[in-house]
Write the structure tokens for this entry.
Amino acid sequence: MGSIQGGALFEYLLRLGDDRLVLGHRLSEWCGHGPVLEEDIALANVALDLIGQATHFLKLAGQVEGKGRDEDALAYLRDAIDYRNVKLVELPNGDFGRTIVRQFLFDAWSVLLLDGLERAAHSELAGIAAKAHKEARYHIRHSGDWVLRLGDGTEESHRRAQTALDELWPYTGELLAADEVDRVLAGTVAPDPAALEPAWRHVVSDVVRRATLTLPADGYMHSGGRQGRHTEHLGHLLDEMQILARSHPGAKW
Amino acid sequence: MVSRASTETELFGLLRGIPDPEVPALDIVELGIVRRVELGPDGVVTVDVTPTYSGCPAMRVIEQEIVAMLCANGHDRVELRTVYSPAWTTDWLSDEAKAKLKAYGIAAPGRAVVDQPLVPLTSAVRHAACPYCGSSNTERKSEFGATACKAIHYCHHCQQPFEEFKAL
């Protein structure tokens, strides 16, 4: 693999890992606070899957980079500016409805992306994606089912779900936007993000319609997360996530 | 001096003595976690393991137990490799393993299917047979349970909650 493609692959693996690490951390904040016991357990389970996926992607990223950084070094010792996740996943959870709507928008994209990566030419990446894809199918059944129940539920749950959808929609553009990294890897290692868009829109609009919600119109879309330009929320999240590892370098237990 | 299991079949046999930390009714070989064992000419034992779920917290314990088991039997040079492909699936469980699960009080998984819609209507849910009374008059409460590999169900016939080893 040439150095241009190697550099792009490292960036791409950081994106895959960081999206899941940050979202997994956000979901873990629900642990002990879920609206019902089953949901508390479900959100913690999804968080565990996502953090596990992130571990595998970041471990591979460290190997591709070849500078001796392992998954822990990448997770705990990078600052916000070096994180490559989309802004959607770093936003605070808000209420349960907002957490679920965000999860559904992410899951619908993630399940399609992982499906594409499973057939990628990079065998180790494809193997990690194949495992993650199976888990993502459980995740979208859970989040999609809840979007149906909240949207087509009470007046209050419908209102909250619609508000969440309207507020989060401008953060979805980043999931599907392609840049130089995607262009270098498209077709060989990773699926072209633009090629995922029709399928993503189909899944999202189908569930939104069945949930009696209204799909927001495309307007201004946030960007910058993939380049390390984040909202203020990511720094606070990392403070909490990284404090132990940074306060006690090299600690083992 | 501990005796040294010399053939790969014997090494597999040793690893069959390690129960899964979360589902001790099954050992790590019948669960499909150990994919390959190879004894090199230099005496190094290479063990290929595949993770069940990406975030399964039991994987590290399992790896430690593999090393400990082999060490205790005279193999102190062990190399563990994580293999991702083919991805672990519950379809690898034998009928015997499924019977052990049921006897342990966990419903066995159905076939792992991937062709169903991403967000199906709830009515499409499979009714797992209750491991206690065998009734299919059951209801799935959540696809996420006490561990990553289990779902929560309720049996309306014997009025007992139970877990299912979920298809993956």
